[in-house]
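Usage

Read records sequentially. Each one opens with the input sequence:
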Amino acid sequence: DGKVKKSSCEKYVLKFNDGLDWAIFIIDETGVFSCQSTFGDYTYVWSSFGESFKEFLIKLKPNYLYRKLCKKTKFSSEKYIESCKKQILKDRRGGYFNKEEAHEFWDFLENTLERFDSPDYTLAQIDNDSSVGRLIPDLYESEYNPNEHMEYENDSVAFVEELYPMFVNILKEE
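and closes with the structure output:
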């Protein structure tokens, strides 16, 4: 019923930082990319990459790698709070908040909102605060939505910014 296609893979084993860190890259001519490493596991299959898969991999830019290989899973409460403060100023100028309401929300952000790594918890904190919750009636659809303030994990950043360039240098040397 199913079709089977067999291909040959190339395996690259890297050890670095005095052997404390490692990575195993596996690629093949069909567009399969896999990396298991101390910075996590990353896999993707490209179906259109031109004539040479290695040349394609050499030319990939960091932003593209992030989109294809990494997920934003780390919530930045600090960035969210700063974004909210900017939005409060904008909404205050636009007449959405009066002076007292703007101060109330600002004080909540600085003194009450705890720094947690979960956007759902942050939304719950705002929803549960009766005074602030009433200021933002449609929180989940508004500019104050913390789900927009997700970041890449530190391991993903290290993979894209440090480890992947090491791999590219090896491909360039071949």
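Summary fields computed downstream for this record:
- The first strand starts at residue 9 and ends at 16.
- The longest helix spans residues 154-173.
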